[in-house]
Amino acid sequence: VNTIRVVAVFLVISAVCAVGALASQDRTSAGGPQLDTYRNDNSEASFAGQMLENGQSYTITLTGTYSYWFASDWNAQGVCPGEHPENMPMFGSPGTTNGKVGDDAAWHFAGPNNFSDCDAVVDHPFVVSLDGGASRIEIEPYDLGTGPNPSHRYHYVVMGQGQQIIFYMEDSKSLDNYGIIHIAIEQSASPTPTPVRQTEKWGDNDCDGALAGNDVLRGIRAIVIPPHNPHIDGCPDMGATVQFVTFDAGGVAPEGSGPLIWGDVHCTGFLDPADPLAVLRYMTGLPDLPHDGFCPEVGRAVTFE
Ligand SMILES: [Ca+2]
Ligand SMILES: [Ca+2]
Ligand SMILES: [Ca+2]
Predict the structure, then answer these.
(1) Which of 303, 299, 45, 40 is CA-nearest to residue 167?
(2) How remote is the CA of residue 172 from the centroid of ligand 1, in Å?
(3) Beta strand spans in the chain (E)
């Protein structure tokens, strides 16, 4: 019974390109970023890619098939029973003899008998450094699936660290390999920015934390023609629509709540004299006048965005 392990062949996707910086910009040509698993000097296969911006997410695509062993190894004792290698790598290595392949970037799906353990297994020989070579991490595709896909293409997400990305293929012997892995590196779409939330007291028109004369004045200035209120940084302009989120920076929005108009203290849908009057009544300790529909109580903290 053969239990010869797949020789821990960790190939690292390295770049064959001497002009790595230029090549890595080119995502379409056949001569783009790629890692040739074959090294005629048996050195570690690697590819030095571009500088990744710190904190920026990147999608990496690895495409191709390769062999850990000489083409002749596949013929010497045949293929593992029941396994189905492909006859040639998707992208052959120049300068050596290409032949059957049983590996892509994510899966080992076939091997020569006596050289492999004859089991289809997940295999991630390609590791990356995100810090210019100081350290290496394993990467796993988010579309790994349950077996090799026919396109032999897999996608990964990494976070840039303001350093160059380098791919390595971890393999004890690169001289007997063949097959090239093509590499695409693209910035992931920017996530939708999270709206900024703030909490202010309802009726605190200048957002200074207290209901006072200036808020009444601001309410009056908003309804004169032309309206005259200087903008205050960090505070909605009078009449601006804000999206009510919740009371007191916690909980959920009450039923019937919706967008509010800053300065529309009585929630009538427009700015009018009743709004500064409500602030004035609050300041002097008088109860608020009744009004319909959902509306925060004067002086109550509201969270909006
Ligand atoms: Ca090898
Ligand atoms: Ca105020
Ligand atoms: Ca109003």
Answers:
(1) 45
(2) 6
(3) 34-36, 45-51, 57-63, 65-66, 103-104, 107-108, 121-122, 126-129, 137-138, 153-159, 164-169, 180-187, 198-201, 241-247, 259-261, 301-304
pTM: 0.56
Q: How far apart are CA 278 and CA 147, in angstroms?
A: 68
Token pair of 33 as six digits = 């970023």
Q: Are 5 and 64 in contact (CB under 8 A)?
A: no
Q: How far is the CA of 251 from the centre of ligand 3 (A)?
A: 26
pLDDT in tens, 151-190: 999 999 999 999 999 999 999 999 999 999 999 999 987 7
Nearest ligand to residue 7 Cα: 1
Residues with CB under 5 A from ligand 3 (ion): 264, 266, 268, 272, 275
